[in-house]
Design goal:
Blueprint lengths: L1 H9 L12 H4 L13 H16 L3 H16 L4 H11 L3 E7 L4 E6 L16 H15 L3 E7 L1 H4 L4 E7 L1
Antiparallel strand pairs: 1-2, 2-4, 3-4
């Protein structure tokens, strides 16, 4: 019995067994009783409380890079596909009021990360910014950086707004 437990606890160390979790696998959800939704509170506790508590000030950069990596991994070909995904995952209501060859501005209303929170004096939605940058970078094939310029819960704005810069 103890050997079986030991084997299960250490099997992840074997490269032949260990697999990275990709987007498709992460979105396979089987919860017959509870369904495919979890509360926003759980996401916020992980993203805003636990991650910052563990990483500290570097949590913003980590969240941005994680979002950017995910944005790339989605492999989307059109902005419209990204808007549909955001709607399906209930990330927020996404509007793109400016989209030119040199500039894109994205607004997120009812942002999953911060909508309804009390103002904390700083932008909070680094993950969303990274994801937008990663998706856009994959579509336009130019290095892209997103800067959060407005934030609902962080700064008291009406939307979480991101200015995208191409490099």
């Amino acid at each position: 019995m103890e050997t079986l437990l030991q084997e299960r606890l250490t099997s992840h160390l074997d490269p032949a067994i260990y697999k990275n979790i990709d987007v498709a696998n992460a979105l396979k959800i089987v919860r017959p009783t509870l369904g495919d939704s979890a509360g926003i509170g759980l996401y916020r506790l992980l993203r805003l409380v636990a991650l910052e508590d563990i990483i500290g000030r570097g949590a913003a950069g980590t969240a941005y890079l994680a979002g950017k990596k995910l944005g790339h991994a989605l492999g989307l070909a059109k902005v419209e596909d990204f808007l549909e995904l955001c709607k399906a995952l209930k990330i927020g209501i996404i509007k793109v009021p400016v989209m030119t060859d040199t500039r894109i501005h994205v607004d997120v209303y009812e942002c999953v990360t911060c909508s309804g929170m009390d103002r904390v004096g700083r932008p909070l939605c680094h993950f969303e910014g990274g994801m937008v940058a990663g998706v856009v970078e994959g579509i336009v094939k130019k290095r892209t950086r997103a800067q959060e310029v407005t934030c609902i819960g962080g700064l008291g704005d009406k939307s979480c707004g991101f200015e995208l810069e191409f490099r």
